[in-house]
Amino acid sequence: MSFDDFFTNVWPRTFRLASFLTHDTQAGEDIAQEVLAAMSQRWDVLERPDAYLQRAVTNASWKWNRQSRTATRKLPLLAVQSGNEFRFDELADAIARLPFRQRAVIVLRYYTDLTETDIAHALDCRPGTVKSLASRALEALSKEITP
Amino acid sequence: VTTLEDDIRALLHSQANAMQVPEPHLSRSISLTPVVPQPSPDTDHLDSDELVPIKEINVSLHAPTSKTSSRRTLLMAAAAVVAVIGVTGIALAIYNRSADDDQTETPAAATTVAPKTTVALTVAPAMKSVHFDVTLADIPVTFTVPDNWTLDEGNAAFKGTGVGAVGLHFDEIPNIYADGCQWVPLDPPVGPTVDDLVTAWTNLPDFAATAAVDVAVDGFTGKQIEFTVPDYDIGECRGADSPVFGLWTAPDHAFPAFEASGPYQHTQQRILDVAGNRLVITAYYDPNATPQDRADLEQALASIHIG
């Protein structure tokens, strides 16, 4: 696959993943662009471009979050099933408040459907840590939202 | 009835669909295909020094907002500093030469500038100071590790996760596994004291634990013990798509809080009593860890302060 084809294919989900991880669509666009631009320079030597992309986006988003920026922006939400709006609104706020790595596990697991091994690779941690992060995140979310 | 996980999945996909995906654009062409400024009817009347290189225009249009601008500003500032230093050095050399015209010229004036450059280029090994509040008792610990180590979960610092891994881990260790591969915890679980944990490790037949010796860290006393993870086949272990060999459990006992980096991992534990709470400082290395990484681990271990 050429880089141009790869780029066209992954751009939307790269932008969305970075936006989820930063909770900022402008930052998401910047990060997606920077990471893909860097990948274009190394395209010929990348053995697992998808895995590299996920890790690079996660790292770049982590750095962005570390620069004392807080996740205060609210991401847009499409209309949801009747009666669920309030719960979804609460849930969105609760996810935004999670520590970065817990939020990253939630996004990588439930949005990008990565395996625990791939999430561990993206976060540079042990698979056991992914389990731990996911467990803590789900526990925090379940406490915060109204049953 | 939807579960929390179903709701999270639905929410994230709803948010994803609601995001306005910007038009894909990439500045790659700038670096791969240099743009040569071409005269156009609009610029024909301009003097050459008024022409702005088209390459620069493209960068500013495609570059991701302020971050790149800031970076460029920093690079320009750095370049300016280097230029100033260079000019100053040359000026000093010229000044020294003029001032010494009446004296016998020696190479000293020229060599006084060069060492300054050498010093500036010497970079000390990057280290970072780490502070964690560990265990359920939030015991404050600080230590220093190389900058390329990963910090994990607020209680671990390591380099690598498999072959060649080294790291430090802080925990209270509520219970250990009798069978790490199948995550079978000791039953009854380990008691709360330092000696309880020492006894538990010592009783695991495959770990070849050393006899415990007294140890003190920052005035907090306890026992030090060392053991080696036995050989195992990771393919036979529990853990869905990412099986692990667990060494001890998380507080809720649902999953391993710490897993081995591989068979024969060498593990040293300092099991301390910190104001009635058990604090376990684990230093570990894979048998294939490099001497440098092991030395870094020793240094990190020696730098630990509690409180």
Structure description:
The termini of chain A are far apart. Chain A is built from seven helices and no strands. Chain A has 147 residues and is an all-alpha fold. Chain A is globular, with a radius of gyration of 16 Å. In chain B, the strands form four sheets. A seven-stranded antiparallel β-sheet of chain B has the order 3-4-5-13-12-9-8, with helices on both faces. A three-stranded antiparallel β-sheet of chain B has the order 1-2-14. The interface between A and B is large, with 54 and 50 residues.
Could you name the key traits of this structure?
A: about 150 residues, B: about 300 residues, 3-stranded antiparallel beta sheet
Topology (elements, then pairings):
The complex is a heterodimer of chains A (147) and B (307).
Chain A: H1 3-22, H2 25-41, H3 49-66, H4 85-97, H5 100-110, H6 116-123, H7 127-144
Chain B: H1 4-18, H2 28-32, H3 54-62, H4 65-99, H5 108-121, E1 127-134, E2 139-146, E3 150-152, E4 156-159, E5 166-171, E6 177-179, E7 184-185, H6 194-203, E8 213-217, E9 220-228, E10 246-249, E11 256-259, E12 266-274, E13 277-285, H7 291-302, E14 305-306
Antiparallel strand pairs in B: 1-2, 2-14, 3-4, 4-5, 5-13, 6-7, 8-9, 9-12, 10-11, 12-13
Concise description?
The complex is a heterodimer of chains A (147) and B (307). With 147 residues, chain A is mainly alpha-helical.
Tally the helices of chain B: 7
| DSSP helix fraction of chain A | over 70%
Relative strand content of chain B: 15-25%
Mean pLDDT across all residues of chain A, rounded? 83
The H/E string of chain A reads HHHHHHH
